[in-house]
Amino acid sequence: MSENSKIEWTDHTFNPWEGCQKVGPGCDHCYAETRNARFAGGQAVNWGPGAPRRRTSPTNWRKPLAWNAAHAEFFAVHGRRQRVFCASLADVFDNAVDPAWRRDLFDLIELMPNLDWLLLTKRIGNVFRMVADARSHDWLAGQRNVWLGATIVNQAEADRDIPKLLAVPARRRFLSMEPLLGPVDLLATGDVLCRCAGCLDMARRNPKQAGLQRIDWVIVGGESGPGARPMHPDWARGLRDQCKGAGVPFLFKQWGEWLPAIEGRSVLGKTLILEGAAPFTDKPQWHGFEDRQQVARVGKKAAGRKLDGVQHDGFPEAS
């Protein structure tokens, strides 16, 4: 699905800088921090309080120019613009980043109209102020090719951060709910999934003011890597069903390291039937939830990305 990225919901990743600081439970096993340490002799030099952020090279900053130039060829094959996940190894709205770097990034985005830029942040509360400092408070609403996303891993973060996301006038808003660490009722935060004809018509007529109560896309996934925490299948099913009921595109990115057993089977030493995977005859690590749902640690590749036997690859239409 991805040309230059292994991430299922994007075509490219672009990192204008590298480095960050953990701000919530979803950051506990940060792959970017681990990568930073691996390339810096074992110490994550660009991570943590007071750590310097590292701006990437001019050569890296020129990569989007080539992607933008290849728009016609890509569109002829795929029928859409290329998606660029910005700052997979950082956070665009990190307080520790030089504001001049952010202005340079926004300049680059304006010069790349054929690319859809996905700005995903764990600091959604910073967005309005930082955008206003660099441009104007409604700059995002004026950019047809910018999608603004917030990372949400549990109900507490949904209650706190979704209203902040909705308060920013952006053309497209999305949620990345990975790693999903608990059940989330999106409707508890208001009618955030509204896709009624009235709201959509208002958005078309006045994109700078419309859609302040709308999430356009939901991505859900379990955790992968060392120390990965298991995801209950009902957490993912609940979000799938909420999105289906509201007509909101839903993408199930991955189970992560853990895969649920059908009907909670966990008889070690025998053939184990696991959802979405071939039978296992070894003895994987098991985790049981309070409702007796069992999940087995089989690895990201074996776990796959089918939910109840279906691969969900929902995407919003480009603005």
Mean pLDDT: 88
- Which architecture would the CATH scheme give at its second level? Alpha-Beta Barrel
Number of strands: 14
CATH topology: TIM Barrel
Quaternary structure of the protein: single chain
Task: Sketch the topology as an H/E string, one letter per element.
Answer: EEHEHHHEHEHHEHEHEHEEEEHEE
- Cα end-to-end separation: 21 Å
Biggest sheet overview:
7 strands, parallel
Strand neighbour order, sheet with most strands: 1-4-5-6-7-8-9
State the helical fraction.
Answer: 25-40%
- Number of separate domains: 1
Proportion of β residues? 15-25%
Can you walk me through this structure?
With 319 residues, the protein is of the alpha/beta class. It has a single domain (12-257), classed as TIM Barrel, CATH 3.20.20. Helices cover 28% and strands 18% of the residues. The protein is built from eleven helices and 14 strands. The strands form four sheets. A seven-stranded parallel beta sheet has the order 1-4-5-6-7-8-9. A three-stranded antiparallel beta sheet has the order 10-12-11. The chain has a two-stranded antiparallel ribbon with strand order 2-3. A hairpin with a 5-residue loop joins strand 11 and strand 12. The radius of gyration is 20 Å and the shape is globular. The model is unreliable at 207-212 and 263-271 (pLDDT under 50).
